[in-house]
Amino acid sequence: MFNQKSKSETTGEVSAPGSGAATIIAAGTTLKGDISSNGDIRIDGHLQGNIQCQAKVVIGSNGSVEGDISGQQADIMGKVSGTIKVKELLQLKGGSNVNGNLYAGKLQIEPSANFNGQCHMTTATNGQVNEVVADKKVREKELQKA
Q1: Is residue 116 pLDDT above 80, yes or no?
Q2: What whole-number distance in Å separates Cα of residue 26 and Cα of residue 31?
Q3: Residue 23's beta-bridge partner residues?
Q4: Which residues contact 37 (CB under 8 A, 6 or more apart)?
Q5: Which pLDDT score is estimated for 11?
Q6: Under a CB-based contact definition with an 8 Å cutoff, are residues 69 and 55 in contact?
Q7: Amino acid 20: pLDDT
Q8: N- to C-terminal Cα distance for the chain?
């Protein structure tokens, strides 16, 4: 029963990132700990921990995350308390509730989404935050006035 190899082990097939295989935390499930994945992740339950993903992160309308999220893309429909860092497109869908700072290449916020925090837009080429240089210049001017 437990000693048999699965079909994917015997044929040598392995799911590649973005091949349709996704990790799902279903509604009614509570997970405490960090998640790291090369494929897509969908949270419909509750996660108390961080998400490190090389693909797309989706937080469903009943899903909630208490921790930081990092990935290529993200669609937020539920509740997130923590920092969200996305290299490409971050979408805050209607009814979502985000408390924390956002770092994204592109940002889309629907009118009924709730967002409390700071937003930092990054460049597509190097992932650096554009505001850092401007913020540093503002601080230098403040110090010169004092």
Answers
A1: yes
A2: 10
A3: 41
A4: 23, 51, 52, 53, 54, 55
A5: 36
A6: no
A7: 56
A8: 74
